[in-house]
Amino acid sequence: MAKGCEAPWTDLIVSSADNRTSCCCFFQGAGQKTFGADGSFPSLMAARNSPEFNALRQYQAGGPHVRGCEGCAHNVEMGEGRRQHYYDYLPFGALSDRQQANLDLVLGEHAGGAVRLESRPLRYLIYFSWFCNLSCTICNEVGTRDFKPDALPDDLFERWRDDLAAALLVDCIGGEPFAIPPAIAFMRKFVADPELASVRLRLTTNGTLLHKHLSWLKAKERVSFNVSIDSIGAGYDTLRVGGRWDQVRDNLLAVRDLIRSERPEWTLGTNALITRTAIPYLPEFARFHVEEGIGAFFQTLRQDRGNEESLYREDVLAYPSLLAEVPGWEDYFDEAIEIFERGTCPKVFDRVEFPDPGASLVGFREQLRLAAVDPIHRADPFGRKVAEVTRSEDILSLMIGNVGKAGGTVGMVGPWAEFTSPDPDFGVVARLNFQGGVPGGGVIGLRLIWPATLPATTRYCHSVVYEVQPFRVLRWTESRDNGERVVDMVIKSLSPAGGDATLLLTLMNARATERNLLPCRLEVWVA
Fold first, then answer.
1. Model-level pTM?
2. Prior bond to 29 cis, omega within 30?
3. Cβ(228)–Cβ(204) below 8 Å
4. How many CB atoms lie within 10 A of CB 352?
5. Is it true that domain 7-271 has CATH number 3.20.20?
6. To 5 degrees, how large is the angle CA 15–CA 18–CA 24?
7. Beta bridge partner(s), residue 257
8. Bridging pattern class, strands 521-526 and 384-389
9. Sheet holding 501-508, edge to edge
10. Cβ partners under 8 Å of residue 183, min gap 6
11. What digits encode the pLDDT tens for the residues 137-179?
């Protein structure tokens, strides 16, 4: 009998831009390709019963281990007493005969540990492409969006229509779905089809374009709006580059009014990431949602290729030293928590009860309080320089290899070291060896210096220490010194003291097909 995560039986996530089809946003193992090597697009059941899906279901039913679910609270390896239930598939109102039969079949196949399925998914998450009308500073898609333009086929609705009729929920995602023509066509057909009336359409959107589409969306009784806003007022305008809070506010209120007057089965909620920029606006955020009767929930940031340096600047939960840039941060949390606790706003979207926003903020506040008193986050190792590399040629000598799928050219252009690759995931890896242990009690400062001006079509590469090694970035700051760009990284070794250690610094593509300038100087400092 299956005792593991339900997702391989219930969910299907299909993404065009990163050419991956899976069942969970956090699954890190092998996923099926969305498109075949010849560009073909498989049938739904061919995707659902792919070798990758079958192996994962076998594992979650107690079979051989499959990499990718490690540490997840829903994983079979958590055991019966500790494993968290993945999702409650409660009816979204009355179900059609087709939906009920499929729901019963899915639950039966999961309970029996079936590997090859006859059922259709209960939930679809469809990423049509990564095209978007905004360039949000913390988005995990922005860095590689221009080089992953693939979109799902224009006739996706026709291909999957009969399968979709057995679903409970279909979530349309981008990028921004209302900025992607194939997504708009799909949604319009979905709304107009009477045989899909009982299937809930969920729209994960930035909300900037809703005013252009509400007239035809009103034809469908079951629609859910999941609107990503991250902040409110000036905080929104800073984080969500290209958007206007006043327009998004008006759109949220228009949907809210339709729920109250015409569409009681619609649901509306916003989500926000916990960021340095957003903290001062938390009270205003809470007040808006309570006063206007709009649900909200908070999420943590997620590091992906291309957004690493943005997270170093914004992710206060991972890099608590950023709180020094937000005087009175606790007061903002306290006021927002009080507003949420004193008022009420909807807590249920799509029959799932999300964490209470006030309670979530309490948890984040306590996590940050503990971090704020930890002296490690105040460490300042930039007191004495213990090593340096001062020429671009010598910087190149530190490189031990590349990462990424496609190749690139690495070498000198004029007086500087650089690389160019069409692969947005390309980078070069520098190795720093510490014999006899990492100095400074295991906390070092890494200073990277670039020239003040760049040649045309050249960018500063991204500097990243990925946490798959025994080192942890405590702080990352960017400044200018006599015009030169300076990046200071405070890094803590997690290796036993006194033992040899190797730090891998990855210098990643800032923009594919353009030159990426490596630092012209590298320095190691200790307190």
1. 0.91
2. no
3. yes
4. 11
5. yes
6. 50
7. none
8. antiparallel
9. 399-403, 427-434, 501-508, 462-464
10. 126, 128, 129, 172, 174, 177
11. 888 777 667 666 668 888 999 999 999 999 999 999 988 999 9
